[in-house]
Write a structure and sequence with these properties.
Length: about 240
């Protein structure tokens, strides 16, 4: 796969995901895995790109008053240490790709799901929120994603809050878990291949800034998520096929 193809697609992924409050980590991983990029290179690369994309989105959500830090705290307090542990834990290459492929297949179904707007907001259950944050945080660290792609649909099912506040929490959750997971990888002596990732960082920075400002108002978020779900599902199945059989 030509490098310019990665550049173009990273730009498009960042633009699309930022418009709906995500970072794009699952799609970066899927694309790099299909392209044959070493798993030692793609793990930190996906997290760095995630951080670049969601930093702008998190700031915008906070500035507009959608990010409730106090209400988000149980998710973050539980997820951050476990994302670090997941990033630190050294998986064998085959095991990593099996977990990644399985996570992509599950993520595809989460992306396909279209949440309705709840009539009323349920009160939060702190222990449930802590458990969700912990589980998704650990998975995030292990497979080098931010976890928002799993968290947001679950919060919609729980009627945790309105759509904007869920997107704001997802963006913040992705940011802190991506940083924590990356630190865990550094503690395991992982290195970033800046020669490979440098141009990709610029690509996702531009795409993410455009996507954060366009938002779901000008793009159809359901259509975007479902097209992405199909692509991730295909990539996940191909990864599993290559590493299970």
């Amino acid at each position: 796969m030509p490098y310019y193809f990665l550049l173009i697609n990273f730009f498009l992924i960042a633009l699309v995901y930022a418009s709906v409050g995500f970072g794009g980590g699952s799609s970066y991983l899927a694309l790099m895995a299909v392209a044959g990029v070493s798993y030692l290179v793609l793990k930190p690369a996906a997290l760095v790109c995630n951080i670049i994309v969601v930093t702008g989105g998190t700031y915008i959500f906070y500035r507009e008053g959608y990010l409730d830090l106090k209400k988000s705290l149980p998710f973050v307090l539980a997820s951050v240490p476990l994302a670090f542990i997941g990033g630190y834990y050294k998986l064998e290459e085959g095991t990593f790709f099996i977990i990644l492929g399985s996570a992509l297949v599950v993520a595809a179904f989460f992306l396909w799901y279209k949440p309705g707007q709840p009539a009323t907001i349920r009160s939060s259950n702190t222990m449930v929120n802590i458990s969700l944050g912990a589980g998704i945080g650990l998975l995030s660290g292990l497979v080098s994603i931010g976890g928002g792609i799993f968290l947001a649909p679950l919060l919609h099912l729980m009627n945790w809050d309105n759509a904007k506040k869920i997107s704001a929490l997802a963006s913040f959750f992705i940011l802190v878990n991506s940083i924590s997971g990356l630190l865990g990888q550094f503690a395991q002596q992982a290195e970033i291949d800046f020669k490979f990732i440098g141009p990709l960082m610029i690509s996702v920075l531009i795409g993410g800034q455009i996507g954060s400002r366009i938002g779901a108002r000008r793009l159809n978020p359901v259509l975007i998520k479902r097209i992405t779900a199909v692509l991730i599902l295909i990539a996940g199945i191909n990864i599993l096929k290559d590493h299970l059989f």
